[in-house]
Amino acid sequence: MAFHANMISVLEKLPRLSFYARTRGWHFIIAWFHRVTGILLVIFVWIHMYLFSSPYGTGSYEVSAPGLGSLIFTFFQWILVVPIIFHAFNGGRLILYEIYGNRGEQGMFRWVTGLCIIYLVILGLIMLMGNQSVSPFIFWLVMIAVASILSCGVGARIWRVGHSIFWRLQRITATFLLIMIPAYVMFMHLTLVSSQETGIVISGMQKYFIQAVYLLLLFGTLYHAGYGIWSLVSDYLCSRTLRRGAALLVTLVMLVFAWMGVTMIRVI
């Protein structure tokens, strides 16, 4: 409570931010933060996919990695995660608000802040230590199970509402990514344990399972990102023709990145 109040008092000292907070409320500020971090998340996903699908991506990374293993580079990696995690956890707040009718905004804002801080502290420790091991099969089995259960719960609640199928899929993918995106970010900084060391002797099945998980993560992320971009752009387009053109353009771009992602996942 005290931390949240202190953070608000610091933010209120920023002239532009305090103006919008007084005139339109903090919910307006948070909504725009969510949109801005969503755009940053889309850019991050595109750059991430481009680098890893590039024929020179893996080699150049391996060459340059030893020179980048400094505290400053780790800190910048950690900072880049902040908008991603805020968008994910604030998306969970929006789901509770929009679908489950939770109107306790002040309490939910504190929960979002607290969860972001806890996650970032844990991630920072993992990044600094660099010696935390995990079995990919067990890790993703747990994460996909939790994400699937939550997604099915949200899907069952909204499936018969009057909104379009695209709207419903946006909320379902948001619930799925609420678990999977933070899990993926953390997974990138964990040391992988081989199936022999963990007693798992189904290496072939493990490979196909992880590929399936990555495909679900890929398509869920691209759909959620594409619909989010189209929703943001369509707010400023009055013409139905322009909105349809924007939808077509976004769809084509997402299909290109889907092809890049599938190509990348096939060689895992």
Keywords:
83% helix; 268 residues; 11 helices; two-stranded parallel ribbon; 2 strands
Number of structural domains: 1
Tell me the overall shape: globular
Order of helices and strands: HHHHHHEHHEHHH
- Major sheet summary line: 2 strands, parallel
- The Rg value, from CA coordinates, equals 20 Å
Which structural class is indicated by helix and strand composition? mainly alpha
- The total strand number stands at 2
The helix fraction, in percent, is over 70%
Number of helices: 11
Quick overview of this protein structure:
This protein has 268 residues and is mainly alpha-helical.
Structural overview:
With about 270 residues, the chain is mainly alpha-helical. It has one domain (about 1-265). It contains 11 helices and 2 strands; from the N terminus they run H-H-H-H-H-H-E-H-H-E-H-H-H. It has a two-stranded parallel ribbon with strand order 1-2. Helix 3 crosses helix 10 and helix 10 packs antiparallel against helix 11. The longest helix has about 30 residues, at about 205-235. It is globular.
What's the structural blueprint in terms of helices and strands?
Layout: H1 2-11, H2 15-24, H3 26-53, H4 57-68, H5 71-98, H6 105-129, E1 133-134, H7 136-158, H8 165-187, E2 191-192, H9 195-198, H10 203-234, H11 240-266
Parallel strand pairs: 1-2
Helix pairs in contact: 2-3, 3-5, 3-10, 3-11, 5-6, 5-8, 7-8, 7-10, 8-10, 10-11
